[in-house]
Amino acid sequence: MKINRNQLLAFLLLAAAVFIAYEPAWRGGMLWDDDKHLTSAALRSASGLWRIWFDLGATQQYYPLMHSAFWVQDKLWGANLTGYHLVTIALHAMSAGIVLMILKRLSVPGALMAAVLFALHPVQVESVAWLSELKNTLSGVFYLAAMLTYLRFDRHRRVGAYLLAFILFLAALLAKTVTATLPGALLVVFWWQRGRLEIRRDVLPLAPFAMIGIGAGLFTAWVERTVIGASGTDFQLSIVERCLVAGHAFWFYLRHLVWPGDLAFSYARWSISASDPVQWLYLLSAIALVVVCWIERRRSRAPLAAVLLFAGTLVPVLGFFNVYPFRFSFVADHFQYLAAIPIFALAAAAVDTVWTRRSRATLWLKPFALAALTAVLILTTRAYAADYADAETLYTATIQRTPTSWMAYGNLGKLELERGRLQQALGYLTEAVRLKPDSGEALNDLGSVLHRLGRVDDAAERYEMAIRAEPALPEAHNNLCAAFQQLGRTRDAIAQCEEALRLRPDYAEAHMNLGAALYLVDRVDDAIVHFREAVRLAPDSAQAQANLKRALAGAGR
Description:
By secondary structure, the protein is mostly helical. The protein has 27 helices and no strands.
C-alpha cells in the first residue's frame, strides 16, 4: 500500500500529537517491576543476550525479543530512562500509523478518527508511560504489521507477503504472546468483509499461524503458573467463577473505552460469588450483546465483528488463564491495548457514516471536530501520563482512585523503607497487611521495617507469617535468617538461609547471611565459600568483601 502525501502528513501529525500527549512521561522514573524488566547487570554482556533467549529463568518473563530490545537500549542509553520512554512512545505512534493503514485498506469510514482514538485515548497511558509495557508497544507494532501484510497477501496471494506476515507474527509472539489471537482476528475480518469463510482461501493459510500461536500461548500460561508464580489461593477459581470474571471484565473494559474518567494503575480485585445475581448479570448481558449483534448481522456485520474482535483479543486476560497480575486485580488498562482497536473503529465508522448521510451541509466541519477531539484527548492523556512521573506520584494517585489497593500501599511502604523513613513505611505497610493479610510480600516488608526499628521479635513473627503465606518467598527466609542470628538462634538461621538459597541460588545477601551464621558455629571453611560467592555475585558490596576478609583472617589465610 503506497503512502501518498496526505497520508504521510496524517502520520506525522499523529506522531506529533502522541509525543505531545506523553511529554509528562518522557522523564518518568522506575515503577513497580521496571527493575526486573530492564536489563540487569548480570545480562549486559553478549553471554547475557544469549541467556535472554535460551535461559528460561534469566528474565522476569520469557519474552526474548522484548528483553533483547531492552538489552540494546541499555547499550544506547544506560541509566538514562528518557531514551527508553521515547522509544516506547515512538513505537506507540508507529502502531497508530499502522492502524490507520489497516483501516484504510479495509475501507473503514472514519479511519483517521479511529487511529486518533487508538493513539491518544487515555486508556493507553499505562501501556505507553510504563517502561515494563514495552512488551505491549513492541508486540503491537509487529502484530499490526503482520495483519497489514497478511491483508496484502489475501489480495494478491504472493508467497513473499505470506512469509513476511508469518515472520512478523512470530516476532510479535516473542515480544508478548497475547498477540496469539491474530489468526482469529483475521478470520473475523474476512467474515466481516465477505459474509462467509472459505476453507481453502481463508482458514487453511492461517492454520500454521494458529498452531504456533496456540503453542506459544500454552507455553506462556505454563511459565506464568510455574515460574512467575501465578498459582495459589488467589488463582483457585472454578470454571463458573472464571466465566463470571470474564463477564465482569468485558463490561469493565468496554466502559473505560466509553468513559475513561476513573482510570487507575491498579483496580480493586472484586470478590467472585456464583450466588450473586449481579455477577451473573454481567455475564448474561455480555452473551445477550453477542446474540443481538448476531441477529442484526443481516443489516450490518460490523457490530458483531467489532464485539468478537474485542472479546477475542481479550480472551488471554479475561480470567480463563492464570496471569500474575490477577493477584492484585482481575483487570488492568494495559490488557486492552490492542483489543480497543475494533471498538474505536466501530465508533468512528458510525460517527462518520451518520454525519455523511445526515449532515452533508456540514461536512466541512469534520476536520474541526476531529481537531477538537484530538485536543481533548491530548489534554486528558497528559493528565494521566503525569501520574507516571515517579513511583510515589503513581502509587499516591492509585490510592486516591482505588483506596483498597493493597499493592499501592505496599509499594509506597517499600519506597519509604528504602528512603529510611521508617514511621511512614510502617503506616503504609500496616495498611497493606490489613487489606491483604495473606500477602507474603507485604508481611515481609512490614517485618523489615520492624527489624530496622529494633523490634526483632516482632520482625521475626512477621517473617514467619510471610513464609506461611508464601513458602517460596526467598526474601522472607533470608530476613528470618538475619533475625534469628540476632536472637541467638544460629542453627535456625542456617536452615532459613539454606532455604533462601535453594529458592534463589544467586541471592548474594543470603550467601552473606549464611556465611555469617556458619562462621558463628566455627564452620569457617564453609563460611568462606559463601562469602566468596557473595563477592562474586555482588562485587561492589563492601560488606561482602569485609566479611570475606574477616573469615580468611580468622582461618589464618
